[in-house]
C-alpha cells in the first residue's frame, strides 16, 4: 500500500519529504494540494492536518505533518539502521536534529531577507539582511570541510537544507558567493542525488514566474 503525500511543488518542506521518500525508495502516491484554491482548508484536509499545511503524510492511516518530523519518522520506520538518521548513536542523531532545527532559522532568514520583496513588495530591513548573513555564516562553519552537512555521510539534514536553499534561485544563488562551504556543498551534493532534478529541476523557473506574477 503506497504512502500518501499531500504536496505543493513550491513548498520546500514538501520537496524535502518527497526526496526522503525517493532516497528510501518507498512507494508514494503524491497528491497535489492547490493552496491558491484553498484545498488545504477543506474539512476533509483539516481532518488529516489541523495545521492546514503541506506536506502531510498518511502512512497506513497514520497522518503526520511537519516535514522534519515526517523525515525522522520515515527513516526510523523504514531504514532504522541507515546513516540518514542515526538511531544507534545518540550524539550523531542529536547533531542531525540540531541541524534540522537550525534549518528553520535558515528558512526564516531567506524569507525575511530575500523572499519578502516578492511576497510583500518591500525591501528587506537591514536587520534581516544582517541576520541572513549571520545565519549563513554559522551554516558555513557547521559544514566546514565536511562532505555533508552533518559529517561525512548523507543525512536527512542534507535533504532538508537542499530543499530550503532552492528559494535562492530567485537571484541565481548569488547570495551563496560569500559562503564558500555552503555553496560548494549545495552544488556538489545535488549532483549525487539522482532524484534531485526530478523533484527540484523546475523550481528556479517557477520561483521566477511567481516573482513576476507579484509585480
From TrEMBL:
Gene3D superfamilies: 1.20.1050.10, Glutaredoxin. Pfam families: GST_C, GST_N_3. Residues 1-82 form the GST N-terminal domain. It comes from the Eukaryota. PROSITE patterns: GST_CTER (PS50405), GST_NTER (PS50404). One of its GO terms (biological process) is glutathione metabolic process. GO terms for molecular function: glutathione transferase activity. Residues 89-210 form the GST C-terminal domain. PANTHER family: GLUTATHIONE S TRANSFERASE D10, ISOFORM A-RELATED (PTHR43969). Homodimer. This is Glutathione S-transferase. It comes from Medioppia subpectinata.
Amino acid at each position: 500500500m503506497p504512502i500518501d503525500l499531500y504536496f505543493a511543488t513550491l513548498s520546500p518542506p514538501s520537496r524535502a519529504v518527497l526526496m526522503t521518500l525517493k532516497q528510501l525508495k518507498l512507494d508514494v502516491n503524491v497528491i497535489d494540494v492547490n493552496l491558491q484554491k484553498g484545498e488545504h482548508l477543506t474539512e476533509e484536509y483539516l481532518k488529516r492536518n489541523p495545521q492546514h499545511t503541506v506536506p502531510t503524510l498518511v502512512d497506513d492511516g497514520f497522518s503526520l505533518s511537519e516535514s522534519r518530523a515526517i523525515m525522522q519518522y520515515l527513516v526510523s520506520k523504514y531504514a532504522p539502521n541507515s546513516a540518514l538518521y542515526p538511531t544507534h548513536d545518540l550524539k550523531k542523531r542529536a547533531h542531525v536534529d540540531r541541524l534540522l532545527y537550525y534549518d528553520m532559522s535558515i528558512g526564516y532568514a531567506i524569507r525575511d531577507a530575500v523572499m519578502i520583496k516578492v511576497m510583500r513588495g518591500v525591501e528587506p530591513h537591514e536587520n534581516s539582511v544582517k541576520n541572513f548573513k549571520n545565519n549563513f555564516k554559522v551554516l558555513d562553519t557547521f559544514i566546514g570541510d565536511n562532505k555533508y552537512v552533518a559529517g561525512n555521510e548523507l543525512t536527512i539534514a542534507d535533504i532538508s537544507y537542499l530543499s530550503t536553499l532552492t528559494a535562492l534561485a530567485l537571484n541565481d544563488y548569488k547570495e551563496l558567493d560569500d559562503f564558500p562551504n555552503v555553496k560548494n556543498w549545495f552544488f556538489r551534493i545535488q549532483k549525487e542525488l539522482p532524484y534531485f532534478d526530478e523533484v527540484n529541476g523546475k523550481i528556479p523557473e517557477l520561483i521566477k514566474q511567481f516573482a513576476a506574477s507579484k509585480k
